[in-house]
Each structure stands twice: as structure tokens, then as C-alpha cells.
Amino acid sequence: MEDSHSSLFNLGILDTVTEDQLHEILDSYNAFCNATQSLLLGSAGDISFGAEFVSHVHTLCKHGLESLVPDHFLKVLEETFQRNGASRFWRHFDPYAGFVGLDENDDINIDEDEIESVLCNALEQISLEKQSQEKCLLILVQALQSFKDQMLEAETNYLISKYQWIVSSVLMTTLPPVFPGL
User: Fold this and answer.
1) CB atoms near residue 47 (< 10 Å)
2) Coiled-coil regions in this chain (predicted)?
3) 96 with 110: CB under 8 angstroms?
């Protein structure tokens, strides 16, 4: 099969794919999607799961679909972070929604220790979610590295930077009205 970069926009390559290869690609893609979900749900510690995940990544890469792998993985990471990270983070501040629209001169009875405790708890939980997802991202990086024999540091940094950008974007786009001044 041709180099994936030279065939990036060559739709004629589809004519060279056999029916068996097509089934292998479809089966691996479906299994990769399922494995990605399982990984993000906490199956990363299962040794057989890790080998299976890597196998699906390798099969997709072998067929020139290397760019599809991180794109899908990052999309699922984003959806999961929005659901399990950002959503839970902002819910910590729901009890303070009643303070929206109050003037600085209004008498607000909020215990600073309580606010600090809520903020610390929210930050701790979102940090744990982010750390867990970063471990999953590193599993993907290792799978890609093992396919290529070595992955350029720039590619690894790109994936990590993109994930950090996703986290920031999700947090900002899900910002509740409790924080009108941001």
C-alpha cells in the first residue's frame, strides 16, 4: 500500500482496496471506537485490553488511516471531558447561581471558607479527570509510537497541546451564567 501522505487525497486508492482489506478496516475501526470508549471508562489497566487497543491502532495505521486515529480519539476525549469533567466541575457552583445579577453593594452572606472548600473540591475532581484522560492519551501515543518505531517529539507535543486546548475550550464554552464577568 502507498505511503499514507502521498495517498492523502488520492481517492483512486480506494480501487486498490480488496474486499478483505475493507472488512479488516471496518472491523478494526469499529473495534477501535469501542476500545476508545472502554479505555476512557477505565479499562486501561486490563493488559489484554491494551494489546487489543494497540492492535486496532496498528491495523488502521497499516491501511493509511493514521490521521483518523488521533482525530477520533481526541473527539471522544473532548466529549468525555465535557460530560465527566466540565459538567461536574461547574455543578459545584450551582448553589451560587442565585447571586447572579446582584450588585456589589448588595449584602451577600457567603462564607469564604465554604467557597474555598467548594473551589478546592471542584479543582481536585477536574484535575483527577484530566490526569486520567492524559494517561489514556499517552496510551494512544505509545500505540502510535510502536507502529512507527518512533514518533517525532513534535507529533507527541501536538497531541498533548491539542488536548490541553480542548480542555480549556470546553471549560470556557460551558461556563455557566454564575460567572458573568469572565
Assistant:
1) 7
2) none
3) yes
| pTM to 2 decimal places | 0.79
Integer Cα distance of 6 and 128 in angstroms = 41
Q: How many CA atoms lie within 13 A of 50 on its CB side?
A: 13
Q: Which residues contact 43 (CB under 8 A, 6 or more apart)?
A: 49
Q: Give the model confidence (pLDDT) of 109-151 as tens digits.
A: 677 888 899 999 999 999 999 999 999 999 999 999 888 876 6
Q: For the stretch 105-116, what's the b/e string if a residue is b when 16 or more beta carbons lie within 10 angstroms of its beta carbon?
A: eeeeeeeeeeee
Please check whether residue 165 lies inside any domain of the structure. yes
What cell numbers appear for 4 in the block? Answer: 499514507
The whole-angstrom separation of Cα 97 and Cα 67 is 42
- Residue 65: domain span: 11-98+110-173
Is 76 part of any domain? yes
